[in-house]
Design a protein that fits this description.
heterodimer, A: 132 residues, alpha+beta, Sufe protein. Chain: A, 3-stranded antiparallel beta sheet, 19% strand, disordered C terminus, B: 415 residues, alpha/beta, Aspartate Aminotransferase, domain 1, 2 domains
Chain lengths: 132, 415
């Protein structure tokens, strides 16, 4: 369990590589973790081949949720939107390299939830498409 | 570090022995320090045994059975109601309505009394420090019936602004609903004053006593509240049972909340006559074993004495505040000790509450992290969440020391 706060996670939490806001962006999405009031926003820029060129997150959260967000955004730069949509829970757990109980799993997966909601929104043509 | 202790009001080392769970190791070499009693308290052996004994020896459905078990079960369940009435000094046991929990008790008042009494444009006065359970039922009702909600503000030092309250009363609210003790700030509100002012303004009062009844003497005759709600599980009793106390004339006039068995006097195909109090509000088979457990919890607390419980918690929070205030970067929200019960919610500069709670758990210390079902209050203080340590009759100054040691572990990890 103590592995939860291994150096890599604390480092990512304290000095993230992808923290900030992208304006303008190609899509932006935000959501809350209702159990703790944490909030994450993710902004993405893509190129004409629908590949991620830049990805930043902002908001507040615990070390697990913010380190997950940073690692996740690191991993998607250069990926296509289809590859982003195919990301799963296990991909996050592999990046973190730790086991999580059900409560902390919500922390770890908040950024993936936000990212995928944004990515799916981008492909839609309805009126409720998130900011583009 | 515990040499500054006053003479303890309770012998918590002895009391701990009544709670088998407190002897548990939660991680290898880390015995449990339970500081999450504001969420739910642990249960003493006497309560668990009373419920066991009920199921082993007396289990039957209550009220209409003629056989021995049914009579025993009815006597145990109604005996618990009588014990509770005495415990909170309610004039009559029939004024004690058993519900599932505090939340259901508040919803009962909203859906029965308020739904038929309040008209479009009427105002309900709440406070900014309410638990979601004393906010959302009123939001639902207000949306359906076009009611207006007002809020007594919380001052920066975590107290209700009584001057603002007096002004808000001039808008003639029909109901004033407030918490007796904040589950986040620990603020013990001046319930008697608030109720008296409300009455003078012609408002009905409802008090959320979920954090008060477990921790201090509560005398409903002296308090004069029209409605008062609380839960068994925070006062050494089981989950699944709570209490609504109500003024008799109000309860008599209110329509039933739920329909079904036990709440009727007679039923025909197209109509029914409601039963008398308290059964009118207790449709269906209730939580009988839980009622018995609650009765045992009342016996347990009465034997210790609620004055002593309150004094013990005051000693603990005093010691905790002294030690927490010496930790750099740690900030406790809420009022000074004169207005505070045994709750310390805090933020740390270095770490998020989830991480604080997680590292404390590695050390065996159980606390809660989040907004504690009081999101608007956290918004008011401009913090997304806090770590909350809450104390009860089985906690000791050594538990506070273990909390503080754990907080230094957080600082090492994030330092």
């Amino acid at each position: 369990m103590q592995d939860l706060y291994r150096e890599m996670i604390i480092e990512r939490y304290k000095t993230p590589h992808h923290k900030g806001v992208l304006e303008p962006n190609d899509f932006s999405y935000e959501d809350d973790n209702p159990s703790c009031g944490d909030h994450i926003r993710i902004d993405i820029r893509i190129d004409e081949d629908d590949r991620v060129v830049e990805a930043l997150f902002s908001g507040q959260g615990c070390a697990i949720s913010l380190a997950s967000a940073d690692l996740l955004l690191d991993s998607i730069v250069g990926k296509s939107l289809d590859e982003v949509k195919a990301l799963e829970k296990q991909d996050i757990l592999d990046m973190l390299g730790i086991e999580l109980g059900p409560v902390r799993l919500k922390c770890a997966l908040l950024s993936l939830k936000v990212l995928k909601a944004g990515a799916y929104g981008l492909g839609e043509t309805e009126d409720n498409v998130p900011v583009r | 570090m515990t040499d500054k202790r006053e003479r303890p009001a309770l012998d918590s080392e002895e009391i701990k022995k009544d709670f088998l769970i407190l002897g548990r190791e939660v991680h290898p070499g880390r015995s449990l320090v339970y500081l999450d009693s504001a969420a739910t308290s642990q249960k003493p052996e006497a309560v668990i045994k009373a419920m066991d004994d009920y199921y082993w020896r007396h289990n039957a459905n209550i009220h209409r059975g003629i056989h021995t078990l049914a009579e025993e079960a009815t006597a145990l369940y109604e005996g618990a109601r009588a014990k509770l009435a005495a415990f909170i000094n309610a004039p009559q046991p029939e004024q004690i309505i058993f519900t599932r929990n505090t939340t259901e008790a508040i919803n009962l008042v909203a859906q029965s009394w308020a739904r038929v009494t309040l008209k479009a444009g009427d105002r309900i006065l709440l406070t900014e420090m309410e638990h979601h359970s004393n906010l959302v039922p009123w939001q639902i009702l207000a949306a359906e019936h076009n009611l207006e909600l007002d809020f007594i503000p919380v001052t920066p030092d975590g107290l209700l602004d009584l001057d603002a309250y007096r002004v808000l009363l001039k808008h003639a609210p029909k109901l004033v609903a407030f918490t007796h003790m904040s589950n986040v700030l620990g603020t013990i509100n001046p319930a008697r004053t608030i109720i008296q002012l409300a009455r003078e303004a012609g408002a009905i009062t409802l008090v959320d006593g979920a954090q008060a009844v477990p921790h201090m003497p509560v005398d409903l005759t002296a308090l004069g509240a029209d409605f008062y709600a609380f839960s068994a599980h925070k006062m050494c009793g089981p989950t699944g049972i709570g209490v609504l106390y109500g003024r008799r004339d109000l309860l008599e006039a209110m329509p039933p909340y739920m329909g079904g068995g036990d709440m009727i006097k007679s039923v025909s195909l197209r109509s029914f006559r409601p039963n008398e109090l308290p059964h009118k509000f207790e449709a269906g088979t209730p939580s009988i074993a839980e009622g018995v457990g609650l009765g045992a919890a009342v016996d347990y607390l009465s034997a210790l004495g609620m004055e002593a419980v309150a004094e013990h918690e005051h000693q603990l929070i005093t010691y905790a505040m002294e030690r927490l205030s010496q930790i750099p970067g740690l900030r406790v929200v809420g009022p000074d000790l004169a207005h505070k019960g045994g709750v310390a919610s805090f933020t740390m500069e270095e770490a998020h509450p989830h991480d604080v709670a997680q590292i404390l758990d590695f050390e065996g210390v159980a606390v809660r992290a989040g907004h504690h079902c009081a999101q608007p209050l956290h918004d008011k203080f401009n913090i997304p969440s806090t770590t909350r340590a809450s104390f009860y009759l089985y906690n000791t100054p050594e538990d506070v020391d273990r909390l503080v040691d754990g907080i230094y572990r957080v600082k090492e990890t994030f330092g």
